[in-house]
């Protein structure tokens, strides 16, 4: 694994690259309240055929937390900085939730940098209930820290059956959420309230897979089907028995969908 601290005008971003150095690249971008280890269930599959570049989003993991406010343009610029630092001119991009939104921004503004785009469990717009949810979460964190939202986050990320059957992994993920810089989390919440890519999806010039957990309430299937229909080369697929963080909740079916879209024959599980 090659680790690299990417220097940007806003601060440093922690990143790493794994897999064959001469293979096509894929960039992975994680959700709010996570870090790049969120993608561990995909690494064995992807590194067989791809140079896999993961990074911690600003305000998360080992990356810096620059002063706010932040915009999606900033998050897109961060992703480009990571690609540039690793010498990647074009890549596939896989993002979940916040990472999927970043991928949409990247695909819309810089289609020349992407081969294919996978948007997992992510919205493209911020209707009033969505914005109000972030206001509520911001207030809870300011009053009680990330511990105040940890349980609700786990309930939205994973089905009840999965949480019951995987207590050790649930504890690890809870610790990851609580380890996120509170200021980074709050700045990101404010950024999410500005989400406004839906109206531009008709201009997306990158083949895109919109992948949704069957029980995802944050980015529901109907919303993601509409996103896929709006994109000129978009397709939709449902991940069964999964909620918002589908790549961990049901990695077998998530990986199979990713492998098929990326033409990784026989590499679905």
Structure description:
With 269 residues, the chain is an alpha/beta fold. It contains eleven helices and eight strands. It has an eight-stranded mixed beta sheet with strand order 1-2-4-3-5-6-7-8, sandwiched between helices. Helix 5 (147-157) crosses helix 7. The radius of gyration is 17 Å and the shape is globular.
Distance between the termini: 22 Å
How many strands in all? Answer: 8
For the largest beta sheet, what order do the strands appear in spatially? 1-2-4-3-5-6-7-8
Q: Helix tally?
A: 11
Low-confidence stretches: none
Summarize this, please?
The chain has 269 residues and is of the alpha/beta class.
Show the helix and strand layout.
Blueprint (H helix, E strand, L loop, with lengths): L1 E7 L2 E8 L6 E5 L10 H7 L4 E5 L16 H14 L5 E6 L1 H12 L4 E7 L7 H17 L2 H11 L2 H6 L1 H13 L2 H11 L15 E6 L7 H10 L3 E6 L6 H4 L1 H11 L8
Parallel strand pairs: 3-4, 3-5, 5-6, 6-7, 7-8
Antiparallel strand pairs: 1-2, 2-4
Key features of this structure:
269 residues; alpha/beta; eight-stranded mixed β-sheet; 8 strands; globular
């Amino acid at each position: 694994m090659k680790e690299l601290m990417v220097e940007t005008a806003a601060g440093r971003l922690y990143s790493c690259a794994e897999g064959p150095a001469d293979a096509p690249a894929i960039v992975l971008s994680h959700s709010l309240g996570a870090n790049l280890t969120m993608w561990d269930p995909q690494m064995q599959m992807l590194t067989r055929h791809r140079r896999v570049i993961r990074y911690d989003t600003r305000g998360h993991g080992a990356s810096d937390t620059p002063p706010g406010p932040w915009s999606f343009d900033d998050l897109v610029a961060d992703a480009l900085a990571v690609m540039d630092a690793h010498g990647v001119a074009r890549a596939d991009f896989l993002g979940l939730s916040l990472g999927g939104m970043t991928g949409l921004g990247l695909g819309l503004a810089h289609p020349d940098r992407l081969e294919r785009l996978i948007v997992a469990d992510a919205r493209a717009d911020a209707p009033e209930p969505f914005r109000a949810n972030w206001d509520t979460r911001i207030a809870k964190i300011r009053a009680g820290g990330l511990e105040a939202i940890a349980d609700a986050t786990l309930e939205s990320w994973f089905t009840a059956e999965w949480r019951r059957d995987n207590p050790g992994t649930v504890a690890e993920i809870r610790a990851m959420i609580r380890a996120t810089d509170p200021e980074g989390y709050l700045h990101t919440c404010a950024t999410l309230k500005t989400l406004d890519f839906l109206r531009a999806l008709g201009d997306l010039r990158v083949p895109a897979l919109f992948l949704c957990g069957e029980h995802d309430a944050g980015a529901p299937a109907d919303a993601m089907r509409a996103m896929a229909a709006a994109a000129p080369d978009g397709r939709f697929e449902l991940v069964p028995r999964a909620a918002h963080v589908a790549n961990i909740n049901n990695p077998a079916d998530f990986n199979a969908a990713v492998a098929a879209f990326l033409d990784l024959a026989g590499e679905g599980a």
